[in-house]
Amino acid sequence: MTDQRTAAGSVDFGRATVARIYDYLLGGERNFPADRAAAHQLLQAVPEARDIAWSNRLFLRRAVHVLAETGIRQFLDLGSGIPTQGNVHEVAQAIAPDSRVLYVDIDPVAVVASNEILMGGPHRALEGDFTQPELLLDTLTDSDLATVIDLNRPVAVLYCAVLQQVPDNRIDAVIAPIRDRLAPGSAMVISHLSAADVTDAYDETTVSTAKSVFRAQAATEITLRTDAQLGALFGDFTIMAPGLVPLSDWRPELSGPDPYATAPTRSPMHGAVATR
């Protein structure tokens, strides 16, 4: 885990990152030529990539809205990416001004951008790898970050469009330490590419090409999962209504129109919110 000063001097401008590709797809400005080139390759293979990104962002906002209304005041956004308008702290604070958010991302640009936006407020951004949960837990309990996130109180942990970067042989080790440490009243939010809907919507060549973009340009492997596999990640948490569903079907009335609301195909991403 590193602070903003370390992050600012450690950017590899020649390598794309998932966070900055995502930022470009959302219309952001915190991206570089390598990220834009990778995004253009992805759009050639999957022209709906921008819609997929926006659908995920809208789901994130709706999930935070619902959890803040249920009384959760702490949010831990893992693999948070680069902040855009209507990010977690803005949504949560609109409902509960005493909300606290800790953003964690491995991309130094995301961390610097987040802390610039958050300066002077109660929220923080931290450069860290969500696939190393033990290190993250040590950091949360042994530093001043405990004033932002107190793991002895209810916390909502957000894994939005990031767990597909974790291979099957690592997923339990990534999820379980944090999930099992959460206090009663906590929540988990997961959005993830759906194996079934991706296969239904795209042919094998398209899927392979899209995966190769992330592999070659961002050194990231993408893993698709079934609903059964995704449901198991919540452990003993109780999934809230309407369940594990395409993102456009998760309480759509709480945000602007999802790009897939009137599309002829379903969102290739599924998501759910669960509570302990």
TrEMBL record:
What InterPro entries does the database record attribute to this sequence? Answer: SAM-dependent_MTases_sf, SAM_dep_MeTrfase_SAV2177_type
Q: Read off the Pfam families from this record.
A: Methyltransf_19
Which segments carry the region annotation Disordered? 256-276
Write the protein's name: Methyltransferase
**Superkingdom classification of source:** Bacteria
